[in-house]
C-alpha cells in the first residue's frame, strides 16, 4: 500500500480524502494557493506544499506545479478529487510518465468519456440506451432544422464539448432550431474553442438519475445503485438522494447493468458515475459519464456502507474489489443538501466574507435512529474566497425510510448555524418541507416551476406557527424570570411574571396562557388547544432545542425588542411576545417603512467592480448595462430597472464593494 498520497485539490473534498487516508494509515500532502494558506485541508494534512497565487489557472490546474509538489514531497500517488485536474487526461498521462499512481481511471477512458459525441457512440456500441439523435457533423442551421424534424420536436441542441449549461438550447419548432443552432455554435466556440454541435430528442418530465460504478484492474466491475439528482438550479445540483423514489427494482437493475457494460467497454477502473435522463415512463437514456468521484458520493456511501475513496485507493494499488454485485444491498435512505455561499434572497448571488459563526450539527447517530454527516472544508473564523467554488459543506442525513431521512435533514438544517455571509440554508429547508418534494414527484424543472420568481422565504402553516408560538412563549417566560432577579432593584417593587401573553408573528396574533411547572410549561391558545413545551434553553443561547408535544423543534434565536428573531424551516420571523396591554398599544404604533433606494444602484453582493458602463450625465434606458461586478469567477451585469439620468458615480473599476454599497445615483 502507498505510504504517502498527494491530494491535487482543496476544500471539502481534500478534507474528505484526508479522513480516509488517515483511517488507512496513509500520510497525506495538501497543496495550497496563497488564498488557502490557512485553509482546513492544509491544517489536516501531514504536509502542505505551496503552488502559487489564488486564481486556479495559476495554481490548482497548473500541471507543472502539481508535479513539482509531487517530486518535492515524494508522494507515490495522487488523488485528484473532483473538478480542477480530475478529468484531465494530460494530467493522468503526466503522472504515468513520472511513475506516480493516479487514483482514478486510465487516461484513454478519461479521453473517451470526456467528449459527448465519442462517449455516446461508445455507449451505443456497448448496448446502452441513448437518446434518439444525430451524432454527425451538422453543416449549417438549415441542416439542423431538417435533422430536428426527423427526430421530432422538442429537441435539445448541445455543444459536444459543453458543460455547466453552456452551448445548450431547447427547440420546439423550426425557427427555434435555426436560432438555437447558431447560438449554441457561437457559445461553444467562445467557451470551449470547439463549435461541434449535436442534436437529440428532448426528454419531457425528465429526471436526472445516475449510477455509481466501481471497477478494479482484474476485470471486476459493480454498480452501487443510483442517486436521484433532479433538484437542480441552472443545471447545478442542489439536493441529492439515494436511492431514487422513482425507480423500481427492474429499472434499477437494467440501468446498473448498462452502466457496468459501459465501464467495461472503455477499460474503466476506479470509481465513476454514469448519468442518465429518465422520462415519466421510466425510459432511461445515457447522458454522460463522469470519470471521477462525484460531489454527491456520500449518499451512496450511507446506503451501501462502502467507503468509495478507500476503494479508489485500493484499486489504484492493484487490489481486487472485496465484494461482488450480490453483496451490494440498499440499506435505508440518504439525503444530501449542498450548502453554498449564495444569497437565495438576492437571486442566489455569490456571497463572500468571513464566517463569523460556523456550527454544523453533531455528526453521527441521532436520538431518532438516524445518522447525520457533514463533509466540509471550512471553519469558524475562516474566509470564503472569491476565487473558488462557493460550496461550504455537504450536509447528509440517513434514515431507515425516505420520510425519516427527510425529517433528519430538516432538523439538521435547522441546527446548522452559519453567520457572516449569505447562504442557501433557508432554501434547502424550504425544499425539504415542500409537499411536492416530500411526495417524490420531482423533475429537473422542480426549482424553476415551484420558485419562478426566485426565493422570497417561507410562510409557515398554522400548525407549525403554533409550535413556534408555544416555544417562544415559554422561552420568553424564562427570560422574564431572569429579568426579575436583577440585583440592585428598588425595595417593595417586586416584578411578577404574568401568565397571559400575546405572541405576534407572520402577521398574526395568538393570545396564550402559560402554566409552568418544574418539568416545563403548558401553553394554552384562545381556542382551547394546549401544547406542552420543555427545553433547556437559556437567554443568550443562539440555538434553541425545544420539545413541543413530544416532537423536537430546533430554532436559531436572535434578540429583537420585546421578542425574538426566529429562523427555522426556511422562514425568518420576527416574533413579539407582549402582555395584552403592550400588544394593544403596539397596534397603535405607526409602521416604519423601509428607505427608498430607487434612485440608487446598489451592489447586490460583495465583489470587484470590473467595469462602469456609463458616465455622469448619461441618460440610460430600461435594461441598459450600468456596471459589471465579479464574484467567485462569475461576472454579473447590473442593468437599469427604468429610464433615468446618471447623477453621480461612486465607484470605479477595480473597487472592492460590500453588499448594498452605492455604485451610482440617479436624478
Distance between the termini: 71 Å
Q: Uncertain runs with pLDDT below 50, 5 residues or more? A: none
Largest sheet: 9 strands, antiparallel
Instruction: Report the C-alpha radius of gyration, rounded.
Output: 28 Å
Structural class: alpha+beta
* Silhouette: globular
Strand portion: 25-35%
The helix content is: 25-40%
Mean pLDDT: 93
| Sequence of strands across the biggest β-sheet | 14-13-10-11-12-15-23-21-20
| Helix count, DSSP H or I runs of 4 or more residues | 17
Overall number of strands = 40
List the helices and strands and how they pair.
Elements: E1 4-7, H1 11-23, E2 27-33, H2 40-44, E3 47-52, H3 63-73, E4 77-79, H4 89-98, E5 101-102, H5 107-114, H6 116-125, E6 133-134, H7 141-151, E7 155-159, E8 168-171, H8 174-192, E9 197-201, E10 207-215, E11 221-233, E12 236-242, H9 249-265, E13 270-278, E14 284-290, H10 297-304, H11 308-316, E15 333-340, E16 342-343, E17 349-350, E18 353-354, E19 357-359, E20 364-365, E21 371-376, E22 383-384, E23 391-399, H12 402-415, E24 417-419, H13 425-433, H14 435-439, H15 446-450, H16 462-484, E25 500-505, E26 508-517, E27 520-525, E28 530-535, E29 543-548, E30 551-560, E31 563-568, E32 571-578, H17 580-586, E33 600-602, E34 607-612, E35 619-620, E36 625-631, E37 634-639, E38 644-649, E39 656-657, E40 662-666
Parallel strand pairs: 1-2, 1-4, 2-3, 4-5
Antiparallel strand pairs: 6-9, 7-8, 7-9, 10-11, 10-13, 11-12, 12-15, 13-14, 15-23, 16-17, 18-22, 19-24, 20-21, 21-23, 25-26, 25-32, 26-27, 27-28, 28-29, 29-30, 30-31, 31-32, 33-40, 34-36, 34-39, 35-38, 36-37, 38-40
Helix pairs in contact: 4-5, 7-8, 12-13
Amino acid at each position: 500500500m502507498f505510504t504517502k498520497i498527494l491530494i491535487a485539490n482543496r476544500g471539502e473534498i481534500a478534507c474528505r480524502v484526508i479522513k480516509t487516508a488517515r483511517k488507512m494509515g496513509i500520510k497525506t500532502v495538501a497543496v495550497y494557493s496563497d488564498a488557502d494558506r490557512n485553509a482546513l485541508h492544509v491544517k489536516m494534512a501531514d504536509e502542505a506544499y505551496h503552488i502559487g497565487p489564488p486564481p486556479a489557472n495559476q495554481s490548482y490546474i497548473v500541471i507543472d506545479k502539481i508535479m513539482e509538489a509531487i517530486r518535492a514531497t515524494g508522494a507515490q500517488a495522487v488523488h485528484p478529487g473532483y473538478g480542477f485536474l480530475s478529468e484531465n487526461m494530460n494530467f493522468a498521462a503526466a503522472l504515468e510518465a513520472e511513475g506516480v499512481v493516479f487514483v482514478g481511471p486510465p487516461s484513454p477512458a478519461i479521453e473517451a468519456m470526456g467528449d459527448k459525441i465519442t462517449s455516446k457512440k461508445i455507449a451505443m456500441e456497448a448496448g446502452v440506451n441513448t437518446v434518439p439523435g444525430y451524432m454527425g457533423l451538422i453543416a449549417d442551421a438549415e441542416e439542423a432544422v431538417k435533422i430536428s424534424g426527423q427526430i421530432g420536436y422538442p429537441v435539445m441542441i448541445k455543444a459536444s464539448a459543453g458543460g455547466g449549461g453552456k452551448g445548450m438550447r431547447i427547440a420546439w419548432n423550426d425557427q427555434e432550431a435555426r436560432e438555437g443552432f447558431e447560438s449554441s455554435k457561437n457559445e461553444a466556440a467562445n467557451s470551449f474553442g470547439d463549435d461541434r454541435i449535436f442534436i437529440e430528442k428532448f426528454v419531457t418530465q425528465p429526471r436526472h438519475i445516475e449510477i455509481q460504478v466501481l471497477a478494479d484492474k482484474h476485470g471486476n466491475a459493480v454498480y452501487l445503485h443510483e442517486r436521484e439528482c433532479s433538484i437542480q438550479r441552472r443545471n447545478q445540483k442542489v439536493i441529492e438522494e439515494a436511492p431514487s423514489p422513482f425507480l423500481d427494482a427492474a429499472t434499477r437493475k437494467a440501468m446498473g447493468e448498462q452502466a457496468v457494460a459501459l465501464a467495461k467497454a472503455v477499460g474503466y477502473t476506479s470509481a465513476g458515475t454514469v448519468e442518465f435522463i429518465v422520462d415519466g415512463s421510466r425510459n432511461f437514456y445515457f447522458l454522460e459519464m463522469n470519470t471521477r468521484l462525484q460531489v454527491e458520493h456520500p449518499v451512496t456511501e450511507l446506503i451501501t456502507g462502502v467507503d468509495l475513496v478507500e476503494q479508489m485507493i485500493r484499486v489504484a494499488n492493484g487490489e481486487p474489489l472485496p465484494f461482488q454485485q450480490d453483496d451490494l444491498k440498499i440499506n435505508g435512505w440518504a439525503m444530501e443538501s449542498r450548502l453554498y455561499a449564495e444569497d437565495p434572497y438576492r437571486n442566489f448571488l455569490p456571497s463572500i466574507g468571513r464566517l463569523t459563526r460556523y456550527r454544523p450539527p453533531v455528526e453521527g447517530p441521532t436520538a431518532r435512529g438516524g445518522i447525520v454527516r457533514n463533509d466540509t472544508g471550512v471553519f469558524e473564523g475562516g474566509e470564503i474566497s472569491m476565487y473558488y467554488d462557493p460550496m461550504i459543506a455537504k450536509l447528509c442525513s440517513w434514515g431507515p425510510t425516505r420520510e425519516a431521512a427527510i425529517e433528519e435533514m430538516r432538523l439538521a438544517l435547522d441546527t446548522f448555524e452559519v453567520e457572516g455571509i449569505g447562504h442557501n440554508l433557508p432554501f434547502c429547508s424550504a425544499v425539504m418541507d415542500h409537499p411536492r418534494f416530500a411526495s417524490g414527484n420531482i423533475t429537473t424543472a422542480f426549482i424553476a416551476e415551484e420558485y419562478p420568481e426566485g426565493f422570497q422565504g417561507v410562510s409557515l402553516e398554522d400548525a407549525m406557527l403554533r409550535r413556534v408560538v408555544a416555544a417562544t412563549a415559554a422561552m420568553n417566560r424564562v427570560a422574564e424570570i431572569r429579568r426579575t432577579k436583577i440585583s440592585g432593584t428598588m425595595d417593595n417593587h417586586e416584578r411578577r411574571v404574568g401568565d397571559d401573553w400575546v405572541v405576534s408573528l407572520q402577521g398574526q396574533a395568538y393570545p396564550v396562557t402559560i402554566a409552568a411547572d418544574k418539568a416545563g410549561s403548558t401553553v394554552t391558545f384562545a381556542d382551547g388547544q394546549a401544547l406542552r413545551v420543555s427545553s433547556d434553553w437559556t437567554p443568550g443561547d443562539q440555538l434553541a432545542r425545544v420539545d413541543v408535544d413530544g416532537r423536537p423543534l430546533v430554532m436559531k434565536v436572535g434578540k429583537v425588542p420585546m421578542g425574538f428573531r426566529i429562523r427555522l424551516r426556511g422562514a425568518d420571523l420576527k416574533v413579539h411576545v407582549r402582555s395584552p396591554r403592550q400588544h394593544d398599544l403596539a397596534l397603535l404604533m405607526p409602521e416604519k417603512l423601509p428607505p427608498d433606494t430607487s434612485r440608487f444602484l446598489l451592489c447586490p453582493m460583495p465583489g470587484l467592480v470590473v467595469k462602469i458602463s456609463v458616465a455622469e450625465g448619461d441618460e440610460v434606458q430600461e435594461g441598459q448595462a450600468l456596471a459589471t461586478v465579479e464574484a467567485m469567477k462569475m461576472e454579473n451585469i447590473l442593468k437599469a430597472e427604468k429610464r433615468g439620468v446618471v447623477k453621480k458615480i461612486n465607484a470605479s473599476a477595480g473597487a472592492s464593494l460590500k453588499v448594498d454599497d452605492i455604485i451610482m445615483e440617479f436624478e
